[in-house]
Amino acid sequence: MSTQTIPAVEKSIVVSAPPEKAFRIFTSGAEGWWPLATHSVHGARASLEFEARTGGRIVERSAEGEEAVWGEVLESDPPSRVVFTWHPGYEHGTPPTEVEVTFTREGDGTRVVLVHTGWEGLGEERGPESREHYDQGWPVVLERYRQAASS
Amino acid sequence: MTYASAIQALGDPTRRRIFERLREGPQAVGQLARELPVSRPAVSQHLRVLREAGLVTERQNGTRRIYAVDPTRLAELRDYFDSFWADALESFRAAVEQEEGRKP
What we know:
The complex is a heterodimer of chains A (151) and B (104). Chain A is α+β, with helices and mostly antiparallel strands and 151 residues long. Chain A has 3 helices and 7 strands.
């Protein structure tokens, strides 16, 4: 049995929209809401593309066109579920962590649950495969995210 | 502590095992090396990476170096990711509500 080195982060919210809309806005509509000013590599002027299909990428691009790949979509199952790797700023060779988001009808709205895991075991099963997905072209540190998120 | 270095430090399976072992209690390098299928210099190197990432502390006890997990740093890392996603989801919710509000 593997221990969770860092316990999974789980967040749950309810939005006033049907699952189809919630899924769409979360994924292909990510640029419309993701707080780039505080949670990004290149800041507010960057663009974000969430390719909502299995094998798609989540890519941030600076105004100058520099790409920062945050992750790859492992599973896309609209409108219920999307799973993607998460490795913004991870050094080449570091196994990515994993985020799973589910969308479930609740009353007139949708319950959105986000679970961020993979701190302990992902690398061992998928090591070589995960490494192929990396495309680190810049020296990013998550400390920028921390500082931005804390301000 | 930079969180990227902590993630990178924990990304290595052997380092994770060392870290998990230390979560059970402080250990000397020699003891760790005896328990793991890696050489003592390799263990020392892994401990150095963990220390530089702020995840473990080191103290001298006579001739031995004792390593221990720094619980504060781990809690900080956990809290950081918790707030990160809380902020992102709040922004998502606001965008959904706003879009819904524009419907005729």
